[in-house]
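4.2 Preliminary Data

To establish feasibility before requesting continued support, the project team ran the inverse folding procedure on a target of 325 residues. The structure was first converted into the token representation described in Section 3, and no sequence information of any kind was made available to the design step. The complete token record follows.
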């Protein structure tokens, strides 16, 4: 039989354990936790692929015990963002995948919520853009392309993705650097990369801008000429200068990163940053990035928050110049 002292000690211990459990339940700062990943886009796209790559690497590295991915698509992420802000608030075991496309969509759609309302954790990857022309084009270099823009931008139609997207933004930045009013540009948006490629190969446009992967096969086959890439430095296996090397002071990555919800604890934020940093420095993540043609551009915590603020201002300015904000 338990005496009174043992009974009280046992009760106190049980109570302490229950209190501890209550504190640990919402917290992320614990070993091999469960992770919730929110994707404000439909399955299959770039953000969804990023989420599933994160999930796969975290599991293979035994950094989490399990995870669940939730997709809420629409309007460049601006449909899902309010749900993440309001319904996921304070959930320290949660991450949202987003990126430059959401920044532009928030501005262009005049969305009620923005990325100042969530907790920046890490920028993970970037996809640089490529400026290409048909093989028969008189433009041999990016300098030739810019000279033609300066002469008469209406005679230099450029194919790319949706209006206000990363392709359009890069075109606007190139023009702005060259002193060409963005409002005078001839931009031809296409819903899919295949349509833009057809317009290029059919010489219906003077040039095209998209992620390098969209054009790589045609560049290698000699059907398209790669004038420059928007990366920060030359890329292995790609025989083309950066825009900066070509005298165009522009660098652009279609970046993707992760954010925690608002209202999480400092401990959970620190634990989440550590988790993502550990994942991003693993061989498994490096392999995943190489296989998917992603450029690792890790930036975490306060540095990432500063980057998001600066990129939002830059994108806002160019979208305004383009008449889209």
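Position-by-position output of the design step:
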């Amino acid at each position: 039989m338990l005496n009174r002292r043992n009974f009280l000690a046992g009760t106190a211990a049980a109570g302490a354990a229950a209190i501890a459990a209550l504190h640990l339940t919402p917290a992320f700062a614990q070993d091999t936790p469960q992770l919730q990943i929110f994707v404000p886009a439909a399955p299959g796209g770039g953000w969804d692929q990023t989420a599933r790559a994160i999930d796969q690497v975290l599991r293979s590295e035994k950094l989490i015990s399990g995870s669940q991915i939730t997709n809420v698509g629409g309007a460049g992420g601006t449909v899902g963002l309010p749900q993440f802000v309001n319904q996921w608030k304070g959930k320290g075991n949660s991450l949202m995948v987003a990126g430059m496309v959401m920044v532009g969509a928030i501005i262009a759609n005049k969305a009620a919520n923005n990325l100042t309302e969530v907790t920046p954790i890490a920028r993970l990857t970037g996809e640089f853009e490529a400026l290409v022309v048909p093989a028969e084009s008189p433009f041999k270099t990016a300098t030739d392309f810019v000279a033609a823009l300066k002469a008469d931008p209406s005679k230099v139609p450029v194919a790319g993705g949706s209006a206000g997207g990363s392709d359009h933004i890069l075109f606007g930045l190139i023009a702005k650097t060259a002193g060409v009013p963005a409002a005078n540009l001839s931009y031809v948006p296409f819903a899919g990369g295949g349509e833009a490629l057809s317009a290029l190969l059919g010489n219906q446009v003077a040039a095209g801008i998209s992620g390098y992967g969209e054009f790589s096969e045609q560049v290698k086959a000699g059907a398209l000429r790669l004038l420059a890439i928007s990366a920060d430095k030359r890329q292995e296996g790609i025989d083309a200068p950066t825009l900066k090397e070509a005298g165009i002071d522009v660098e652009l990555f279609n970046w993707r990163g992760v954010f925690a919800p608002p209202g999480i604890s400092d401990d959970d934020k620190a634990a989440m940053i550590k988790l993502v940093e550990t994942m991003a420095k693993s061989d498994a993540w490096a392999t995943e990035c190489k296989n998917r043609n992603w450029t690792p551009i890790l930036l975490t915590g306060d540095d990432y928050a500063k980057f998001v603020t600066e990129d939002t201002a830059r994108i806002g300015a160019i979208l305004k110049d383009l008449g889209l904000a």
